[in-house]
Amino acid sequence: GKVFKVAVLPGDGIGPEVMAEALRVLDAVEAKYDVKFERTHANVGGAGIDNEGKALPETTVNICKASDAILFGSVGGPKWESLPPDEQPERGALLPLRKIFGLYANLRPAIIFPSLTGASSLKEEVIAGGFNVLVIRELTGGIYFAQPKGIEGEGRDRVGFDTMRYSVPEIERITHVAFQAARKRGKKVCSIDKANVLSSSVLWREVVIGIAKEYPDVELTHMYVDNAAMQLVRWPKQFDVILCENMFGDILSDEAAMLTGSLGMLPSASLAEGTFGMYEPSGGSAPDIAGQGIANPIAQILSMGMMLKFSFGMVDAADAIDNAVAKVLDQGFRTRDIFQDKPGERLVNTKEMGDAIIAAL
Amino acid sequence: GKVFKVAVLPGDGIGPEVMAEALRVLDAVEAKYDVKFERTHANVGGAGIDNEGKALPETTVNICKASDAILFGSVGGPKWESLPPDEQPERGALLPLRKIFGLYANLRPAIIFPSLTGASSLKEEVIAGGFNVLVIRELTGGIYFAQPKGIEGEGRDRVGFDTMRYSVPEIERITHVAFQAARKRGKKVCSIDKANVLSSSVLWREVVIGIAKEYPDVELTHMYVDNAAMQLVRWPKQFDVILCENMFGDILSDEAAMLTGSLGMLPSASLAEGTFGMYEPSGGSAPDIAGQGIANPIAQILSMGMMLKFSFGMVDAADAIDNAVAKVLDQGFRTRDIFQDKPGERLVNTKEMGDAIIAAL
Ligand SMILES: CC(C)[C@H](C(=O)O)[C@@H](O)C(=O)O
Ligand SMILES: CC(C)[C@H](C(=O)O)[C@@H](O)C(=O)O
Question: Any idea which positions bind Mg(2+) (chains A, B) (predicted)?
């Protein structure tokens, strides 16, 4: 059987609790398929700051480098909020991880499970039957990383500045990811830009149009980012794959995720060229409920499923996990965040949800 | 009596139709108050392109310069969509107007009128009783205008780039606008930035905090733009005044507007230092219904009301217009876009809505 190395970075807040369930599901995958997962735990975020002095310690980077994939929990909390932004758990861990490992393609599904439409703040008629949008965000370029960036001058003469920049190859490779994903889904890509104002967007649009020619079976449309922020609210079902540069993707993927009403259900993948990737829940570390054993582990478990699929090529096992999650939802299992007290629902804690998913596997 | 000069730029699509009603309401204001409005019509947008060769003709600029305020309709339509972005009606007219007249403060109220909550795609329980958010967007700085900006290189070596830049005085003056507005409303300012990633945002936050000290009666909070895009969907009522730099304001003001479900109701003001300003509906030119006399003139009429208030200091007249609009809504008058076929509603066309508002005045 194959052996895969996984760097396990539980992080802060509910991270360790939900990670524990994901790892138990991983055990079940080992038992069912002919595969071994060698796991090495490492500190990240607030746990990194507290135990090793920084959000992304060197030991953690080295453990990740020696692994085939990173399974990431969540980071951050009030304890570290007064640190300078650069040193805070979120920014201090995530941005360097993305850069060091070249995680240029961020995949964030925003899915409403039909049984959970009640959790959305959108009206029933807008989301009847659920929706399924995949936001593909460029993650290592644009205004996040380009230079120059800084604050110059003294006192009232200061100016703060950032640079949004994209090269053709950067746009090409993320566009391929979007079209390849669309091919396996609804066959539609909506590319987001602000080409009426930004030069980087003019290039973005032109390159996307060029790459689209290689995918005649996939429909390409373009939308300005301001309009996209509106259209997501108005009629999310119009979208299949949404392709965005880094900052627009940050904003729109969060908006789309919140529209589902169940952040605790949404996984994400951040992929490098080749098979390396980092997998993390879309929601935060939820410090308010940490340590109580009541957090929803589904996003972490589905993130682990994405790891099986994208880094280890275990499509069947990933599908089995998706199906097990769908099944326990149909059976009425609900952690507190998705409990609506309807007939047939059963309130469970983190571990019981893990048990149910393992049983369904 | 006073005499004010108004540049009237109806533009394209439904622009001329809704403008006609706003001007009839302006007649009613003249009749009621001791004031004269000298109006000069000028081409803008597609009408500018068709009649004078560009989206913002020189004659139009000169007419605006000779006026005390600009009343703007809406621009754009399929006819001009294949032009280069720079020459298109929206970008080609709006960005130069903002720059030439120093319209640095964009005020965009996102209001759900209690009688129109049904139009929102948000659930009744999320918006019960309506909500009232005022987005204040910096409009002449940031990534829209800063240099360098362009595309360099050849073929696959090309890079596209833009610069996001803010100076201290630019941040200070828009922050004053936000705090002064908040003082007259809910006394809360939420400043939006991405200070965990952008240097311009680090400066933005620092300057906002400094100015806030002059307004101890107003509560200041900060939110990252991605979180704001989520929070607007989750619970819009948590916001009073939202303060944004140019691009974040573009995105969030559109999202907030769409959350109300009735774009045809929302006015906007773009103010210069002093009393000069430009006033325009938030919605677009709606070419699909243009020429049929069925468009909703309320956004245009409320925009005119903002002109009376901000450029001419006629607060009473502006309030009277707001009240007249509220009254006709209570009376059940509905143009097609806000008609829900409920008991007491009466479907009217553009002109009948204008008549009703004039009668209510
Ligand atoms: C923490 C922050 C730097 C990060 C981002 O903006 O990318 C986060 O919002 C995300 O989306 O993962
Ligand atoms: C047309 C475009 C340049 C403009 C902008 O982005 O500012 C528009 O979206 C707006 O918000 O007025």
Answer: 226, 250, 254
Quote the minimal CA–CA distance from A232 to chain B in Å.
9
Range of the domain at B75: 1-104+267-361
Q: What is the pLDDT of residues B301-314, one digit of tens each?
A: 999 999 999 999 99
Do B90 and B165 belong to one domain?
A: no
Pair A135, A67 in one domain: no
Q: Phi/psi class of residue B347: alpha, beta or left (left: φ > 0; alpha: ψ in -120 to 50)? A: beta
**Smallest CA separation from ligand 2 atom 5, residue:** B250
Please indicate whether, in this complex, the C-beta atoms of B160 and A159 are within 8 angstroms of each other.
Answer: no
Mutate to test the pocket of ligand 1, among A75, A139, A250, A285 (most ligand atoms within 8 A of CB): A250
Q: Is A182 domain-assigned? A: yes
Domain shared by A25 and A143, yes or no: no
Q: What whole-number distance in Å separates Cα of residue A312 and Cα of residue A302? A: 14
Across the interface, whether the CB atoms of A198 and B121 are under 8 A apart is answered no
C-alpha B297 chain-centroid distance: 14
B129 and B54 in a common domain: no
Q: Distance of CA B179 to CAs A173, B187, B188, B238, B270, Å? A: 44, 8, 8, 17, 16
Q: Kindly state whether residue A111 falls inside one of the protein's structural domains.
A: no
- Domains held by chain B: number: 2
Task: Give me the residues of A, 226-255, that contact B with CB < 8 A.
Answer: 226-227, 229-235, 247, 250-255
How many CB atoms lie under 10 A from the CB of residue B262? 24
Give distance in angstroms: CA of A83 to centre of ligand 1.
16
* Position B244 confidence tier, pLDDT thresholds 50, 70, 90: very high
Token output for B114: 């209690």
Same domain, B288 and B253: no
Q: Is A213 a catalytic residue?
A: no
